[in-house]
Amino acid sequence: MNDINELYRQLLLPSDALVSDITKLNGDIMILGVGGKMGPALAKLAKQAVDRAGVKKRMIGVSRFSEAGLEDELNGLGIETYEVIR
Q: Which residues contact 70 (CB under 8 A, 6 or more apart)?
């Protein structure tokens, strides 16, 4: 595995245990600080787990979104975003 993007994709594959746990959650999933250091990866991992589980859950991310293009990227993956304005 020589490609950093491929490694990143592999790291974000949800485990069977996570997919199982997602099916047990009531309600939607909201991630605060989704634009931070770990937020995007967490949101992508959770979204893939929701999709694999085949459950209907809204994925919502809230952040100040200081990184250009990140909000659009998350929206493109089906993660609903809300920008906090100071």
A: 35, 40
- Residue-level pLDDT at 11: 86
d(CA 22, CA 61): 17
Residue with tokens 């085949």: 54
CA dihedral 29, 34, 39, 43 (to 10 degrees): 40
Residues of the chain with pLDDT under 70: 1
CA 86 – CA 76 distance, rounded (Å): 25
∠27-79-16 over CA atoms, to 5°? 65
Residues 6+ away with beta carbon under 8 Å from 20: 53
Contact, 37 vs 6, CB < 8 A?
no
What pTM does this model have? 0.89
Alpha helix segments (H runs only) across 1-86: 4-11, 16-24, 39-53, 70-76
